[in-house]
Specification:
The chain is of the alpha+beta class and 180 residues long. The chain has 3 helices and 10 strands; from the N terminus they run βββαβββββαβαβ.
Length: 180
């Protein structure tokens, strides 16, 4: 079915080839055509690359390597899906960013509400985690926010556990957006 969207799905993909000249890697996610991961979408914090080493995709990805990726754009025509290795999981009130780089609160919210949300969320997430607070969080209770974050953290744990199974060598769906 061509109108199924893979956007948001998380896969353990297999690197097919790395093209230094394009600063990109082609990754098999089990969808026929290879998907593409550009250097700009690599989660550099997770790569363990030392500070002084150049952020070049060929330093962190090799052909045959398994890599956790999330689809950001569906395949169109001859172009494969676009990927990121900076995973984010959308909830009702927040988007959970396990890699922790981003934290932000919708600018559309009034200042006092932003402060309230920030203080609630600071107790719910660690320094290694990030959240982007959606406009929908306005007026949400501490309990609702706690539940949302807990559900997303559990989802992330589930994804991580699937990757820890031994010897996964074929592309695997780790988390799929439910079809709406």
């Amino acid at each position: 079915n061509s109108n199924i969207s893979y956007v948001g799905n998380v896969y353990l993909g297999k690197v097919q080839n790395v093209l230094p000249s394009m600063e990109a890697a082609f990754v098999d996610i089990g969808k026929g055509r290879n998907a593409v991961l550009y250097a700009g979408e690599v989660n550099w914090d997770e790569t363990g690359l030392s500070e002084n080493k150049e952020k070049k995709i060929e330093h962190v990805l090799k052909s045959g390597q398994m890599v956790m990726v999330q689809v950001t754009k569906d395949p169109i025509g001859q172009k494969g899906a676009r990927l990121t290795s900076q995973i984010s999981l959308p909830g009702r009130f927040v988007v959970f960013v396990p890699g922790g780089e981003m934290s932000g609160i919708s600018r559309k919210l009034p200042e006092n509400e932003r402060a309230r949300l920030k203080s609630i969320l600071s107790s719910l997430i660690s320094d290694e985690e990030g959240v982007i607070v959606r406009t929908a969080a306005e007026g949400a209770s501490e309990e609702e926010l706690t539940r949302d974050v807990a559900r997303l953290k559990a989802q992330w744990e589930d994804i991580k556990q699937k990757t820890e199974k031994k010897n996964i060598t074929t592309p695997t769906l780790l988390y799929g957006e439910p079809d709406l």
